[in-house]
Amino acid sequence: MSNPTPPLIAFHKLGMEFGPQRVLADINLDITRGQTVAIVGESGCGKTVLLKLMIALLRPTTGAVTFDGKVLADLSDRDLTRERLRFGFLFQSAALFDSLTVYDNVAFGLREQRSLDETQVRATVRQRLQEVGLPAAVESKKPAELSGGMKKRVGLARALALNPEVMLYDEPTTGLDPIMTDVINELIVQARQRQPVTSVVVTHEMKTVYKVADRVVMLYPLARLPPGDNQILYDGPPAGMKQSNDPRVHQFIEGEARDRLQELANSTT
Amino acid sequence: MATAGSSPTGYIASLGAGAMHAIDLLGDFSIFALQTFGWMFRRRPAPGTLMPSFYLVGVRSVLVVAITGTFIGMVMAVQMYNQFNKIGMATRLGSIINITIVRELGPVLAATMLAGRIGSAMAAELATMRVTEQVDALSCLGAHPLHYLVVPRLLACGLLIPLLTVIADFMGIMGGAFISIKLFGVEGHFYWAHSAYYISMWDVSMGMIKAFFFGVSIALISCHRGLNSRPGAEGVGQSATEAFVASFVVILVLNFFLSILLVTAYDRFILQGGGRSIF
Questions:
Q1: How many domains does chain B have?
Q2: Is B50 part of the contact surface with chain A (CB cutoff 8 Å)?
């Protein structure tokens, strides 16, 4: 009997609460090496929380997240830092450091490791910026001088600079025009083609899902979930979503309000 | 309609919740401070982080501290001259102005000004970094936020606020002398002679020791409030306000206890018990 490939990232009976608010409950999920998983769902269903739990920016209330067999939340500061460097994270707002130039932003992680000299840092920064289609002229600009799409691309260059094994994308195309959305999607695909990387993409955009993902996990807001139901409504290939029997999956794919307006009105009265 | 908070049990519950919150906050702050001190010795400050903090805290604060010091000295001279002149001791004005400035008003008012100028700015900057996920980004790129953000600010405040206090002291002394000598016509030679006689190196050191503790407190409180900011613009504003108010209160409380400690130390170790201890 052949051994199944162990998951690179595994969620085991994971629960997350912020004070009285429960966001995630009893999540069991395995992500294997090399996969590109899209996590989709309505706003507030816990997608970004799930992403931050993967890299231990948040600690779960119950259960555990393991990365390559290690529970990140249990590691010492030093070990956690070492493990985090195996990840790249593109934040929703890009999270570029305001006080640094584009060049210094991309060079930040490389310099922090103190293992490369400045010539090597410069070469890597130039290469990463080139890969995301940014000219050398932007190197000296501050983040405040960039458009939303450029910020996202600088954020992507910064995240890729350390050659991560896992790329985490938090709503990479939110707030971008359709063309720039496609550019970012294309860059995600190219990043995967250039080097073997496991990717987790949190998104609302079905177009992004179809373009970049080979597996989709759909979460449902816990507050609206009937007791006993699994918070993961769908877990499978993108093409299979349309064949799902769950009407809530179809509602999300089609982007239909249906009874939601009435529900929202009732919740405010 | 009666609410839970208006009944006696409601008040007790609120009081208990408030006390629990305060203890929780104090514990969190203590851990934060200890971890920051740990990072100070564990790893050298990240390149490029010290100079901007030193510039912001040191160079950019010279003017405001100098103005504060000058006007404290001038106001004290205006307020005291008549009383001293009536008893024929106007030439002693310098000694009382200067000792008050060097021991108490210089460090406290300079620190208060700096808590408003630097502390609030630090809290707002770190709070903005928190809510825009820049702090999370630091962690993802292998930098520890305490090492990268807090340690340089702590070093800048701890090392430079005592020096800024010396500037405030100097300007206060000069301001007091200017008003006393030039405006009220006090004899300059005796004014300075009495000033020199009554102020010792210990008085200056006492002010600088206090300023060091005030600087460390301002940096730790401001960074703690900033890094624990609530989301949104309101959260950022609230962090800046909390940082100033907490720093101000801590400066006043710390000043009281440091004064007791330092006066007692002076009596025990310098006067060899010759002075009157307050204990």
A1: 1
A2: no
